[in-house]
Amino acid sequence: MITELAVERVEFTCGHCWHRWSADYDVQYYRDENGDEWEYFTRDGHGVPSPYDPQGAPPCSLCGRRWVGRLTARRSVPVPPGPVGTPRHRITTSRELHRTDRHAAPPLEANAHEQPQQDTPAASSGRAGHG
């Protein structure tokens, strides 16, 4: 049974080249028939390992190394049917005919948001321990 849905923005900072990037993950939290709690991550509709685990962290696009992400923002998505009085609309046509424009809408990709500012070479030369 799904217990929570959320969109989580995860930021990554490469500990080798200091490149920073972020990505949005859809997360489902659920409880199985044994009462165990699980989380399931997807990006762009595809199941992926947890970005908070070293094996699931995506590689840095500059040097290819993997660094665990950190949560920077989160939006909960209500699990249906929601509290009493939650607005909803009954679908009276077949699923395929309901709001047909949704089938042609472009995908909202996990990287389709503003990325973190990168340090400029001049700014990074003033870092402690570098220089």
Mean pLDDT: 82
Strand content: 25-35%
Helix and strand pattern: EEEEEHH
Query: What's the domain count?
Result: 1
- Share of helix among residues? under 10%
Question: Termini separation (Å)?
Answer: 53 Å
Biggest β-sheet description: 5 strands, antiparallel
Radius of gyration: 20 Å
Molecular shape: globular
Provide the spatial order of strands within the biggest beta sheet: 4-3-2-1-5
How many strand elements?
Answer: 5
- Report the total helices: 2
Q: What structural class is derived from the secondary structure elements?
A: mainly beta
What ranges have pLDDT less than 50 throughout 5 or more consecutive residues? 122-131
Task: Give short descriptive properties of this protein.
131 residues, mainly beta, five-stranded antiparallel β-sheet, 2 helices
Explain this structure to me?
The chain is mainly beta. The protein has one domain. The protein is built from two helices and five strands; from the N terminus they run βββββαα. It has a five-stranded antiparallel β-sheet, with no helix packed on it. Residues 114-123 have a biased composition (Polar residues). Residues 74-131 are annotated as: Disordered.
Task: Please write out the topology.
Elements: E1 2-13, E2 20-31, E3 37-43, E4 46-48, E5 70-77, H1 101-104, H2 121-124
Antiparallel strand pairs: 1-2, 1-5, 2-3, 3-4
